[in-house]
Amino acid sequence: MTARIYQRPKSAMSSGRALTDRWILEYDPAEAKRPDPLTGWAGSGDTKQQLTLRFPSCEAAKAYAEKNGIEAHIVPTPTKTLKIQAYADNFR
After folding, report:
1. Is domain 2-91 annotated with CATH 3.30.160?
2. Domain spans, the chain
3. Mean pLDDT of successive 10-residue segments in the chain (92 residues)?
4. What is the SS3 assignment for the chain?
5. Measuring CA to CA, which residue among 32, 21, 28, 31 is closest to residue 70?
6. 19 — alpha (psi -120 to 50), left (phi > 0) or beta?
């Protein structure tokens, strides 16, 4: 079993940063998705993809993965950059 550990990014649709301090462990897909012959929806028999575990810190997520024998890779959090500009820059 492989999984990835990452920190949830801020929503692009709002300025709030709620729940961005939590870390998430998601399992990687074990098999490819295939279309259902009747409906055409994509799906697979892999039920681990439906599971999302939330942790208060990266260390807690790593400890859980090691305890349960899950090979996990950590996706680093992108650095936050601010684009500082004046309102007058919109008219140049």
Report:
1. yes
2. 2-91
3. 90 81 93 91 89 95 96 90 86 84
4. CEEEEEECCCCCCCCCCCCCCCEEEEECCCCCCEECCCCCCEECCCCHHHCEEEECCHHHHHHHHHHCCCEEEECCCCCCCCCCCCHHHHHC
5. 28
6. left
